[in-house]
Amino acid sequence: MGVKLNGLFESKKIKMAELSGKGIAIDAFNWIFQFLTTIRMADGSYLTDSKGRVTTHLNGLFYRSVSLLENRIKPVFVFDGKAPKFKKETLLEREKTKEEAMEKMEHAATPEEKAMYMRRIARIDDYIIDSSKELLDYLGIPYVQAPAEGEAQAAVLSQQGKVFAAASQDYDTLLFGAKRVIRNLNITNKKKVSGKGITKGIFPEVIDASYNLSKLGLSREQLIILSLFVGTDYNKGVDGIGPKKALKLVKEKERTELFNTYDFRAVYNINEIYDYFISPNTIEVNGDLDPIKIEKDKLIKFLCDEHSFSRERINQYLEKLKTEDNSLSFYG
Questions:
Q1: Of 138, 238, 250, 310, which has the maximum CB count within 10 A?
Q2: CATH number of the domain at 217-280, out of 1.10.8.640, 3.10.129.10, 1.25.40.10, 1.10.150.20?
Q3: Tens digit of pLDDT for each residue in 31-42?
Q4: 162 and 289 Cβ atoms separated by less than 8 Å
C-alpha cells in the first residue's frame, strides 16, 4: 500500500523509447501481486497448468519482460526478504482483509461477485517466488534478493547508479532514497481496474526526487517525517494531518520537537522507524546488472513442457527480440 503522497509530487509522462538502454530496478512483489490480482479466468480463478499449478504470475512476468527487452530496457527485479518488525501490524491488517474477502466470497450471490472477492485474496508463496526467479534465470534477466524490503534495495541500486530508476507504484522508494521512480511501467498503456472488469489508458511517468524535493523545499529527512505524519506501512500517521499540513509543519519545526509533540500512532518507537527509512537493511550488489544470454531451450521446456504454455505463442514473442540482422538480442 505504501505512503499516500498523491498530489504532492510532480511527475513527467514519458514514452517507453525514453527508457531505451536504461536499467530499471523493479519491485518484483509489486508486479507479481498485480499479475495475481488482474490476470484471472472469467470465474476469478488463477491460470493453471496441466498439473493444477498456478501460472498467472509466469504469464504476466514473461510477456511483460519480453516487452521490456524488446524496447531495449534493462530490467532488474528485486525480491522482498524478511519484512522489518515495524511492518507487523500492516501485514496483520492485510491478512485480516484477505480473510474477510474469503468469507464474502463463500457467500457471494453471483459468479461475478465471487470472482471479485477471489481477486482480493491473492498471496505470494514460495512456489510463486521460486518459479518467478527460475523464469528470470532462463530469460537472462538479473534479479536481487533483498534481505528485507525490496523497495529499499531498489532505492539503493538507484543511489549507487546501478540503475537509472526504481519502478514501483508506491512512493516509499523515494523515502528510501531513490533518485528517480518510474510509475505505470506498462508496455500496453492500459491498466485493468481491479474488480470492475474494465481498463483505462495509462502511461509511464517518472518522478525525479531531486527536482521535487527542491520544488517543495524539503530534504529527504524532512520528506520522511512528512510521510510519518501521513502514515506509512510502519505507522498509521497523525489524526487530522494530511500532506499539505504536514509539509508546513516539517518546515517550521525540528524533528525532535515534532516527534515529542504528536502521536504518530506507531507500535514501535517513531525514532526507530525514522532511522530505518534513513538506513534500511540492504545488501551491496557488485558488478553490472545487464541482461545476459537467454537460455531458449530451457525457457521453452520450462514454460511449454512443464507449465503448459503454447509453444507457438512463446516462440512468436521471442521472435520480437530479433534485430535487423536476424540475430536474437540477448541470446545467440
A1: 250
A2: 1.10.150.20
A3: 999 999 999 888
A4: yes
